[in-house]
Amino acid sequence: MSGNTLGTLFTVTNFGESHGPAIGCVIDGCPPGLALSAADIQHDLDRRRPGTSRHVTQRQEADQVEILSGVYEGLTTGTPIALLIRNTDQRSKDYGDIARQFRPGHADYVYWQKYGVRDPRGGGRSSARLTAPTVAAGAVAKKWLKEKFGTELRACMTQLGELPIAFESWAHVAHNPFFAPVADVQALEDYMDALRKAHDSCGARIRVQASNVPVGLGQPIYDKLDADIAYAMMGLNAVKGVEIGAGFASVAQRGTVHGDAMTPQGFASNHAGGVLGGISSGQDIEVSIAIKPTSSILSPRPSIDIDGQPVEVVTKGRHDPCVGIRAAPIAEALLALVLIDHALRHRAQCGDVQVALAPIAASC
């Protein structure tokens, strides 16, 4: 494996570069008979695409998806689904100065050391542009999960740089450019305007939730559901931390608090984040990810070139001052890809299992 494929039964192989002619993915293992069109995928791509507000990169990409295979007369056939997204607004000249230099905090240096060659245009393979095919594949997974189990996935921003964002309602998320669960985002607007003027960047914290997840997804020990969720989330550019449920807050919790009490009416709380022993409990899956500040900024920084000589690097181009602003639909997609893969694995091994006790409700 070369690190470009995610999944065991539902696999997604991602291909392309930021400034190449196109990017895309091949989905293998999608069950047949799912009604699927480009419109089913385009909605999530539109949520992720660049140029949607002044707070993100102004690269203008339509991100129109093309389904090249695996669908016949509107239904998936069970064969590989090839999805293509053409790049139309590359400005490779912006990267001419860094062809021989390494940007601090970026993957330039390690790609050069590992492969002996790298594509400097827009970051090449290490660009966040490559999250678009992930979102496209995730849209397919989300549709199957919704039709099969009623599973719903959603994500929101809970912190922008130093600014925590109090949760008000999921209803607000679709109505502002930050995917923030609040009605008033003026403070976030002002923060980003000041950040851009300072030629700097910031990180973000994203909450991802999946509801109506069936009980039993996940495997013991090394293929735990939460382990695979963390693995997938770390595959998202700039993610430096993943929490499931209470996460690091569980360090300060007592066992009398952290252990989610069970009653005939349901679980009393969800500190476990919907996963017990690596297997889904039927409660909401709760994930939180930490995203680092964007590496590509206009402020001059010391670095070296490919000859090991000191240089001062200024990264030109159109970059997100906070890559976390567009991360919500990507995080949803990654969680969906893990859930569909484990749902298919569970069906393969335990589809005939019957127990006398019905799943308890998630009452919290």
Characteristics:
alpha+beta, globular, five-stranded antiparallel beta sheet, 24% helix, single chain, Chorismate synthase, AroC fold, 364 residues, 7 helices
Could you describe the largest sheet, including whether it forms a barrel? Answer: 5 strands, antiparallel
Contiguous helical run count: 7
Please give the CATH class.
Answer: Alpha Beta
Order of helix and strand elements from N to C terminus: EEEHEEEEHHEEHEHEHEEEEEEEH
Molecular shape = globular
Number of domains: 1
Query: What would you call the quaternary organization?
Result: single chain
By CATH, the topology is Chorismate synthase, AroC fold
CATH superfamily: Chorismate synthase AroC
Which residue ranges are poorly predicted, with pLDDT under 50 across at least 5 consecutive positions? none
Structural class category: alpha+beta
Give me the Rg, rounded: 21 Å
Strand arrangement in the largest pleated sheet: 1-2-3-7-4
Tally the beta strands: 18
What fraction, in percent, of the residue positions are helical?
Answer: 10-25%
For the residues shown, what is the average pLDDT?
Answer: 91
Distance between the termini: 41 Å
Portion in strands: 15-25%
CATH architectural name: 4-Layer Sandwich
